[in-house]
Amino acid sequence: MPTPLGLLATRRWLGFTVFALVVVLACVQLGRWQLHRAEDRQATAREVAARTSAEPLPVQDVTAVGERPAEATRWRSVSAEGAYDPSGTVLLRNRSLDGQRGYHVLVPLRLDDGTVQVVVRGFLPAPGPLSAGVDVPAPPEGRVALQGRLVPGDAVDGPDDLGLDEGSGVLSASRADPLVLGTALGARVAPAGSLRGGLVEATAEEPAPPATLAPLPAPEAGNYGLNYAYMVQWWLFALIGVVGWWLLLRREAREGSGQDGAARERRAVRA
């Protein structure tokens, strides 16, 4: 009478067991990978939340002239005071907010120490096609105080896509490298040795911005809960593989026992 252990000694079941073991181990490892992904995303979310909720630092303490901010300062809450230079306004094309297409409005802010920091004042919806007429709100005159989040901006090789927007008559670009844009705008807007790296996404301004400019949303924490769900899914697959392997082994052992019993009965009848 075959037993489960006896069946495991056969070549067929030995090969099937090795295959099942490989599948189960792969599922376990994939579950562990999803667990590590979830933990990494959760740690990043906590770090971003800590940076955005921290007491704002003066932007001069976080950024430097001619240098991109360190990645560790991304989303850091900062404050700035100075005067906007509307002649340096740049629209970032192909942006969207809540499913609506539009622009990010960038304006240089001349700080009290004479350096320049590029500020993203907000999102400006496009009234139709991006080439249609766009009424870009002018920044307030005189002194401005603001708070915002620091982002490094895009690292690009050169202002190859900087040009005049047909609808608004304002300079537009598809990528935001403040150092490159500052060079393209020229010494009148950002004299040599005055432009700070990074962008400040404004979250509050005094005077307040017009209602047509929507503030950019806070950074998303990331759906790390989905990674936990995938982890459970892979480990369930591993458990199903083990249980399925054992049930198949038991069933074949029982069927073998039944066939042996029937053969004995036939031999007894013939005798």
UniProtKB/TrEMBL annotation:
Transmembrane segments: 12-31, 228-248
Record keywords, A-Z: Cell membrane, Membrane, Transmembrane, Transmembrane helix
Top-rank lineage group of the source organism: Bacteria
Subcellular location: Cell membrane; Membrane
Membrane topology designation: Multi-pass membrane protein
Family: Belongs to the SURF1 family.
Protein name in UniProt: SURF1-like protein
Upper taxonomic lineage: Bacteria, Bacillati, Actinomycetota, Actinomycetes, Motilibacterales
